[in-house]
Amino acid sequence: MDKITLINKSLWCFWYGLLGLIPVLGVPFGLMAIWSSWQLRRSPLAGWNPGRNYVTWGKVLAIIGLLFSFCCLSALAVRISKLVEY
Asked: How far apart are CA 30 and CA 36, in angstroms?
């Protein structure tokens, strides 16, 4: 992976993390951000990455988005189970 590709993938990781904040619909983007950050960490140029902050924030936003989506889906499941009981 060359330096330009490394920087470009770092920016895409950040954008995937931002899109991962969308409840439920952002789950695939959140997973892509986490996958991209994992790939960038394994890169031979991982020590030299001026976009390291983008990767870090992309992963943080993705995790927050996934947790929020999980909470929304859990609340929906509880609500549906209570409706079915009645």
From this structure: 10
For residue 62, how far is the Cα from the chain centroid? 3
Distance CA 43, CA 59 (A): 16
Domain regions of the chain by residue span:
3-85
Residue 22 in this model has a pLDDT that exceeds 90: yes
Report the C-alpha gap between 4 and 49 in whole angstroms. Answer: 10
Residue 14: count other Cβ atoms within 10 Å of its Cβ. 24
The pLDDT tens digits of the residues spanning 24-49 come to: 999 999 999 999 999 988 888 778 88
The single-letter code of the amino acid at 55 is: V
8 with 45: CB under 8 angstroms?
no
Q: What is the pTM of this model?
A: 0.86
Crossing angle of helices 27-41 and 3-19, rounded to 10°: 150
